[in-house]
């Protein structure tokens, strides 16, 4: 499997690769929980939110906010 053959990669890997590419291009990502810029890729948590049985949306969240973000997402499902 080629690294850049997007059609053969699972969707979640493609989502993470896109986040990484955006990070490399801009030098940061915006935390979807706090709105703060994440400058250190090691502090990034990629959270996959299901949109349908076959589609996820990947969002970037700072590791300090990830647990709270997931908790709020779970509460919104009830």
Compressed to H and E, one letter per element, the order equals HEEEEH
Instruction: Count up the helices.
Output: 2
Residue fraction in strands = 25-35%
Total count of domains: 1
Structural class: alpha+beta
The biggest beta sheet reads: 2 strands, antiparallel
The overall strand count is 4
Low-confidence stretches: none
Shape label: flat
Calculate Rg over CA atoms: 13 Å
Describe this structure in words.
The mean pLDDT is 86. This protein has 78 residues and is of the alpha+beta class. The termini are far apart. It has one domain. Helix content is 36%, strand content 27%. The chain has a two-stranded antiparallel ribbon. The protein is flat and about 35 Å long.
Give structural attributes.
about 80 residues, alpha+beta, two-stranded antiparallel ribbon, two-stranded antiparallel sheet, about 35% helix
Task: Provide the fold topology.
Layout: H1 11-26, E1 29-30, E2 37-38, E3 44-52, E4 55-62, H2 66-77
Antiparallel strand pairs: 1-2, 3-4
Quickly describe the structure.
By secondary structure, the chain is of the alpha+beta class. It is 36% helix and 27% strand.
